[in-house]
Every structure is written in structure tokens, then in C-alpha cells.
């Protein structure tokens, strides 16, 4: 695991990586550094398939769902239990966090680019468990995200505990088109600020 931010921070957020990039990808590094700079303690970990990829240098498919869920729950337990942490992550990591958040009693949930459906296949929704999610949740989503656009998400029956913050022009990693006048760095600053404010607003 990787840790950043003060050990005695009032809030701790645990972040898991997306399907194709490790816990120390540029995106994960930027988000973690930004949150730590606000005084939030950040913990990062890797699922077994990614740890194996790092050790062996060979690409492999993500673990089956049961393994990913068990890994997330084990990490939360190692950090003292859900009541002590906010859970979340990038894409796959955030999705799996959303599936264990209620069970572990997490303080909150932050998803950076939620994969509401596979790109090009809006009928294959990954939202059933979000309908009755109890955990207070922030989803940060680019308005050009192929995994879920504003028009699509507006039609989903999401729990009232979920708030979606739209990053203008952003794709699945919040990168905007050059012609937009916005920048990837600027969008990341916005996402980190929104995530930080959300975490800091949660009861201690």
C-alpha cells in the first residue's frame, strides 16, 4: 500500500486503481497528491491481478468480481474498519468500492469516473446496486465520458445519497478536447477540490 498525507489526519480516503493502470499511474498520483495537500490521509492499494502484473511484467485480465470484492474488504479491515475511512477510486476501483461501501459501513464513497456501462453498450448498466446505496457518495464524471454521459445518467434511478459532479468537457480521465479552452490539469484541480470538500464535509 502507498500512504500520503498526515498520519493524524481527521479523514482518510482509500483509493483503488482502474482496470488498466496501477495505483501509481499519473492520474492516481495526481489525485492522491492533491488530496494529501489538503491534509487528507490517502491510502492506495492494488488488486491481485495488478500486483501480479507489476511483479511479472505481463498484462492480465482483472480478477473475478468475488476476488476484487474480497480484496477491498480486506484492505478496509486492515485500516481499522469502514467507519474510519472513505472508500473510492478510479473507474473499476470506484465501482467495486461502491459495492462494498454499505457492507463495511464506510464514512463515504468517492468515484473518479464511474463506469455506468461499457463504452458503446449503454444497455449493459452497472447501476442496480446504486439504486438503494446508503453511503453518502460523490461521483466525479466528465461530460464526454463514454462510460456514462449527462443525458444517460439523468435517466438512472440513483439513490438520493449520490451526488454527481460533472467535469465540463472531460472524458473518462477528465481530459477535455483542445478546442474547449479547458485543460486536463485544470479539470483535475476541479475534481480534486470537489472530492476534498466532500470528504471534509463528512462526519468524523
Set down the secondary structure blueprint:
Blueprint: E1 2-4, E2 12-16, H1 26-37, E3 41-45, H2 48-56, H3 65-78, E4 86-90, H4 92-104, E5 108-112, E6 137-142, H5 150-154, E7 162-167, H6 184-201
Parallel strand pairs: 2-3, 2-4, 4-5, 5-6, 6-7
Antiparallel strand pairs: 1-3
Helix pairs in contact: 1-6, 3-4
List the uncertain runs.
none
Count of DSSP H/I helices: 6
Give the rounded overall mean pLDDT. Answer: 96
Helix content class: 25-40%
Q: How many structural domains can be distinguished in the coordinates?
A: 1
**CATH architectural label:** 3-Layer(aba) Sandwich
Can you tell me about this structure?
Helix content is 35%, strand content 17%. It has one domain: Rossmann fold (3-Layer(aba) Sandwich), CATH 3.40.50. Helix 5 links the parallel strand 6 and strand 7 (162-167). The protein is globular, with a radius of gyration of 16 Å. With 204 residues, the protein is of the alpha/beta class. Strands 1-3-2-4-5-6-7 form a seven-stranded mixed beta sheet, with helices on both faces. It starts with a strand and ends with a helix.
Amino acid at each position: 500500500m502507498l500512504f500520503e498525507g498526515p498520519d493524524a489526519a481527521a479523514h482518510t480516503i482509500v483509493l483503488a486503481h482502474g482496470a488498466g493502470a496501477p495505483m501509481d499511474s499519473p492520474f492516481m498520483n495526481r489525485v492522491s497528491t492533491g488530496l494529501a495537500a489538503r491534509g487528507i490521509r490517502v491510502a492506495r492499494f492494488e488488486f491481485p491481478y495488478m500486483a501480479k502484473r507489476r511483479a511479472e511484467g505481463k498484462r492480465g485480465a482483472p480478477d473475478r468480481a468475488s476476488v476484487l470484492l474480497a480484496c477491498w474488504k480486506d484492505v478496509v479491515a486492515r485500516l481499522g474498519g469502514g467507519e474510519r475511512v472513505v472508500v473510492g477510486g478510479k473507474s473499476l476501483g470506484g465501482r467495486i468500492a461502491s459495492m462494498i461501501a454499505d457492507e463495511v459501513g464506510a464514512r463515504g464513497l468517492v468515484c473518479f469516473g464511474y463506469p455506468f456501462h461499457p463504452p458503446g453498450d449503454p444497455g449493459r448498466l452497472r447501476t442496480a446496486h446504486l439504486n438503494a446505496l446508503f453511503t453518502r457518495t460523490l461521483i466525479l464524471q466528465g461530460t464526454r465520458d463514454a462510460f456514462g454521459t449527462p443525458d444517460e445518467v439523468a435517466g438512472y434511478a440513483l439513490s438520493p445519497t449520490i451526488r454527481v459532479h460533472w467535469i465540463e468537457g472531460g472524458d473518462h480521465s477528465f481530459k477535455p478536447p483542445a478546442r474547449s479552452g479547458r485543460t486536463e490539469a485544470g479539470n483535475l484541480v476541479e475534481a480534486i477540490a470537489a472530492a476534498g470538500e466532500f470528504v471534509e464535509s463528512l462526519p468524523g
